[in-house]
From TrEMBL, chain A:
<keyword id="KW-1133">Transmembrane helix</keyword>
<feature type="transmembrane region" description="Helical">
    <location>
        <begin position="227"/>
        <end position="250"/>
    </location>
</feature>
<feature type="transmembrane region" description="Helical">
    <location>
        <begin position="20"/>
        <end position="37"/>
    </location>
</feature>
<protein>
    <submittedName>
        <fullName>ABC-2 type transport system permease protein</fullName>
    </submittedName>
</protein>
<feature type="transmembrane region" description="Helical">
    <location>
        <begin position="57"/>
        <end position="86"/>
    </location>
</feature>
<keyword id="KW-0812">Transmembrane</keyword>
<feature type="transmembrane region" description="Helical">
    <location>
        <begin position="107"/>
        <end position="134"/>
    </location>
</feature>
<keyword id="KW-0472">Membrane</keyword>
<feature type="transmembrane region" description="Helical">
    <location>
        <begin position="178"/>
        <end position="197"/>
    </location>
</feature>
UniProtKB/TrEMBL annotation, chain B:
<protein>
    <submittedName>
        <fullName>ABC-2 type transport system ATP-binding protein</fullName>
    </submittedName>
</protein>
<keyword id="KW-0813">Transport</keyword>
<keyword id="KW-0067">ATP-binding</keyword>
<dbReference type="InterPro" id="IPR003593">
    <property type="entry name" value="AAA+_ATPase"/>
</dbReference>
<dbReference type="GO" id="GO:0005524">
    <property type="term" value="F:ATP binding"/>
</dbReference>
<feature type="domain" description="ABC transporter">
    <location>
        <begin position="6"/>
        <end position="236"/>
    </location>
</feature>
<dbReference type="InterPro" id="IPR051782">
    <property type="entry name" value="ABC_Transporter_VariousFunc"/>
</dbReference>
<dbReference type="GO" id="GO:0016887">
    <property type="term" value="F:ATP hydrolysis activity"/>
</dbReference>
<dbReference type="InterPro" id="IPR027417">
    <property type="entry name" value="P-loop_NTPase"/>
</dbReference>
Length: 255, 245
């Protein structure tokens, strides 16, 4: 299983769609400091009200997490994961692979896990590139805080990838499945920061996995393992459950 | 140990209102190349898929190397190779990568997998194209990679569904030679085809299917004598006509 996972990961890394996703992420890293050079006053004021802070670094983190990486989390997992098993079925590759001593459920787990690993690789590379590029270009940039906050958000990205794969096999058709996954992730992303805007709803929004991924925004000044680990564990658990559901659902797919 | 590599007893498959396979019985001896002939839609592919556990029978029983195909599916697949009639190769992988990928599905240790992969690439004359993306492969080359992936686990039983269709005469000849060589090494081969000359070239015994039912099973020479046929085409037509009447 481990070797198959590794070979599948390498194959997925070489796919064209992975390189398209990588190009999108590199563009985001390079472009954001330029776009953020002079945010409009109403944006600064809104962020100060929501996060009790108008620190330029807090403004940057809000923009980076909610306006950039959350959008990435809505799109890139769909691009990477919406073909898992179904693309092999539609192209005829599954006709060969299904006759091997590996159940379709296990094959789904391998494909989804390797796609999650690809997502994580792209995500981590983006944050490391950002940590190298942003200092000096973003006022008050703190690489340690940035990487700590984004390491939590990475778990949300992995969860989104597992969700896209599972939703697509549940729908049973690639195009329709990708659309449903995109709508679902779009909804979760759209509601991710509602608890920050409306503190009364905060507890309720913790049911949203993408809110868990953005929890670092609550207290950027005092990020600690005790703040980051619980949502990380919750997201890891949700990812495992989501993959397990996909593995159960995929049994209906006929090779 | 049973002399039969494959036994099929009363096997049937119904898809809704369509009876795809109906009460099929036959057995294949170890090391034999067994022909499976019939028109398109006769039920050959569904029978092969049931033998590999890819489709669940609605009635009957089948074993491959003593393993029940519905109860010990993974054991059957571990010992079998399969080349379906219709398939595609992953376009972004190279031939070498794909063989390693398939070997990993059998949990073959990497060093062994590499050695077997290189041997198969050499055997099928694919060394020069081993690092090219599969998307650019011709029909003949695709079929060679398809056969190579079916052999990566050194199977004891090989199921081949229309393996020669789409191949030019040279490619067909080479493929049939390979299969003969495998048979001499003790591999049991089920060779399904509607190209009857290939069946005759390769097999001693055949089963003929028509409209989901097995209409004949036995040695080719005996069947020809029994049905007064000089050629395989004539034999098959006589069998079908007798069935119709």
């Amino acid at each position: 299983m481990t070797r198959l996972l590794w070979l599948d990961y390498l194959a997925a890394l070489r796919e064209r769609k992975t390189w398209i996703a990588a190009a999108m992420l590199v563009y985001a890293v390079l472009a954001i400091p330029l776009l953020l050079a002079d945010p409009p006053p109403h944006v600064r004021e809104a962020i100060a009200a929501w996060f009790h802070d108008a620190d330029p670094f807090a403004v940057f983190m809000f923009v980076w997490i909610d306006l950039v990486m959350n959008k990435v989390v809505a799109f890139v997992p769909v691009i990477l994961a919406s073909g898992v098993v179904l693309r092999e079925r539609d192209t005829g590759v599954l006709g060969l692979l299904a006759a091997k001593p590996l159940t379709l459920s296990r094959y789904f787990v391998v494909r989804t896990a390797s796609t999650c690993a690809v997502m994580l690789t792209l995500y981590a590379a983006t944050q490391l590139l950002g940590a190298a590029w942003f200092p000096g270009r973003v006022a008050g940039f703190r690489p340690g805080t940035f990487l700590a906050a984004m390491s939590l958000h990475a778990f949300a990205a992995v969860f989104a990838t597992a969700l896209a794969a599972t939703v697509t096999v549940a729908v049973g058709r690639r195009g329709a499945g990708a659309l449903v996954a995109l709508m679902l992730l779009g909804l979760l992303v759209g509601l991710a920061l509602v608890g920050f805007y409306q503190p009364d709803w905060y507890a309720m929004t913790l049911a949203n996995p993408l809110t868990l991924g953005a929890l670092a925004m609550r207290d950027l000044e005092h990020l600690s393992p005790s703040l980051l680990l619980p949502p990380m564990l919750a997201l890891a658990g949700l990812t495992a459950v989501t993959i397990a559901i996909g593995a159960w659902v995929v049994r209906k797919v006929e090779a | 140990m049973s002399a039969s590599a494959i036994t099929v007893e009363g096997l049937g498959k119904r898809f809704g209102a369509v009876q795809a396979v109906d009460d099929v019985n036959f057995s294949v001896e170890r090391g034999e190349i067994f022909g499976f002939m019939g028109h398109n839609g006769a039920g050959k592919t569904t029978t092969l898929r049931m033998l590999l556990g890819l489709t669940r029978p609605t009635r009957g029983k089948a074993t491959v190397l003593g393993h029940d195909v519905t109860l010990a599916t993974l054991e059957v697949r571990r010992a079998a190779g399969y080349l379906p009639a219709s398939y595609a190769l992953p376009p972004d992988m190279t031939a070498r990568e794909f063989l390693q990928y398939v070997a990993a599905m059998f949990a073959i240790p990497p060093a062994t997998a590499r050695a077997r992969g290189e041997d198969l690439l050499r055997r099928f004359g694919l060394e020069g194209a081993a690092d090219r993306k599969l998307r650019g492969f011709s029909t003949g080359m695709t079929q060679k990679v398809g056969l190579a992936q079916a052999l990566i686990n050194e199977p004891q039983v090989l199921f081949l569904d229309e393996p020669t269709s789409g191949l030019d005469p040279l490619g067909r000849h080479e493929l049939l030679e390979h299969l003969r060589g495998l048979s001499q090494q003790g591999v049991t081969i089920v060779f399904s085809s509607h190209i009857l000359s290939d069946v005759e070239t390769l097999c001693r015994r055949v089963a003929a299917m028509h409209h989901a039912r097995l209409i004949a099973c036995g040695e080719i020479a005996a069947l020809k004598r029994e049905h007064g046929a000089a050629t395989m085409d004539e034999l098959y037509l006589n069998l079908v006509r007798r069935q119709a009447s």
